[in-house]
Amino acid sequence: xxxxCAGGLRGVALHQATAELEAGSGDYxxxxxxxxxxxxxxGGPVGRVDLWAGRWATRPGEVVVNRQSDxxxxxxxxxxxxxxxxxxxxxxFAFDLSGTANAWVAPGQITALRPTATQxxxxxxxxxxxxxxxxxxxxxTDGLPEDALxxxxxxxxLKEQIxxxxxxxxxxxxAFGALGIVVAVLIVANVVSGAVISGFRHIGVLKSLGFTPGxxxxxHLTMIGIPAVLGCAxxxxxxxxxxxxxxxxxxxxPSSGVFHGEVGxxxxxxxxxxxxxxxxxxxxxxxxxLRAHRLSAVRAISMGGAPRAGRAxxxxxxxxxxxxPRSVSLGVGLPFARPGRSALTLAAVVLGVTTVTFAxxxxxxxxxxxDAGRDAYDITVYATKYQDGKEIxxxxxxxxxxxxxxxxxGAHEVTxxxxxxxxxxxxxxxxxxEGRRGDxxxxxxxxxxxxxxxxxxxxxxxxxxxxxxxxxxxxxxRLEKDGRRQAFTVVGALMNNNAETVVTDWATLTRFAPRxxxxxxxxKLRDGADRAAYARAARxxxxxxxxxxxxxxxxxxxxxxxxSALTLMLAxxxxxxxxxxxxxxTHDRRRDLGVLKSMGMTPQQVTTxxxxxxxxxxxxxxxxxxxxxxxxxxxxxxxxxxAVDIALPAYMMDVWRAPALIGLALAGLAIAVLxxxxxxxxxxxxxxxxxxxxx
Length: 695
Prior knowledge:
alpha+beta; nine-stranded mixed sheet; 21 helices; disordered N terminus
């Protein structure tokens, strides 16, 4: 089938061969057996291959290798030696996300490789769901022999695989994004409206010079709009710069530069960022600006130089009778002088505390996720290694190697692991049956449901395996290998997004696959033992093993690191909101400061009063922000896990303890105090003459 077909179906048939490589070709990273497909070019009516280096294979003896761009173009011209068939010269490197071929040759060359199968690439008119695709595929293959279709893969499955990392990051990035937008809007509204109110004197001067009310409003909106546009332009450019490496990290393909330019920020997002915040600034300035432009010149000048008295006096009078120091009681009443401004500042602090709480819970959960199962071993010793393209086997047999690794200095526990390559009965889907034997065969801290294996014939499946095959604990799964078929009972679920793995005990594995030998040994060291020293001792004891110390979890580090950075940014923005409010309050209360200083208030008392006024908002923000952050953690984190078919054990979500909550309660106070301290010290240094100079 080639080109267009009836009913909107398009398809192309490509011959496929399996070739074994010579031992000397192992350094190409292709494995010992490769799948080669005859294809006339990287394009075609169905499917596309990205040729990122060299050219397409068009003549006999040429091959294009399916590799990402971590290979240098300098590798072009190297030869691949086949055990049966002609040697092939690499003339190009291409990348195909579907992974249906390791290499491509010209259609005329595939005949020399003796093809044994045909790939049928199909594009249907309606591919909106997996059910529709299955129906269309069944209709196309209806007339074929029963065993003709060995396997199939839809673009929907491929789409799920490619976007799995992105889906894991999306929930928490959306949470931080929403918090960041709201905090930014609140801060901008607070700053802009406060600047307009504090500029009443300037408005009065402009009116006295003959400016019309409309001109006065236009002047202030322009003063606000210009820095807003510049700030949004810089922020948009910075956001696009930061987003590029993030996209590279979470998508398959772009991580190697193969699809540069195809994954990025949509133009409408940039447009929204460029226009949205200036619009917020204009709207925030419009309300106080309209109020100011209606005032007479005399009224505006008097409001700018001498704010109306009497606000918050009722609260302060009530507090005056308490045992609180006078500077503290005055500070507690100050937020009531400007209730609108204080409400905006309080909202910013609440969201700042919410962010810190959410990030703390996220970091704790991700740390536990990254450490899960790692208390069982410190080093994985692989029972084979490759050097200079050659496979080196251990000198010791299985049992002797197991005993040897346990006898080395520092070793505490050794657990052997073997993997049997099987298939799900009735399908072409690969399943790895993993068997464990030794000191710690169980992985209880990653068990999310059911129990561990107790009897022969029982398995524990990964949560992704159960999800993909629509199974539950208690169901039976049938595997086949080398013509034998056996049923297993699923008795538990593991926290793992590998959809091809089920785990069992050693007796069940050897009964199903008696010839399987351990591929790795997990070694737990004694407290204080040196991992590097143990690895050196293992290599010296048997040159055929490859010890690899357990490293940090890269996904955990990425999420915790980015969450920490975003949290710090939002906390700083919230503190800047408090800073702005403290500056505006100090400016509005300069007459009161002069009076208080003339009555003997010391600079330290002025600082205490100003900081206390913001600390009240910080304390209230903590009370409201902590529960919101906890709710966000319980909503967002499970969705992150569900996106990659992982079920989290209960202990990973149970992260809140009294010491952590006490520390979080201080977060709001810290944001408020840090934001208010600088303007408070500045107000404390003002002399009476400076304060009353313009009165």
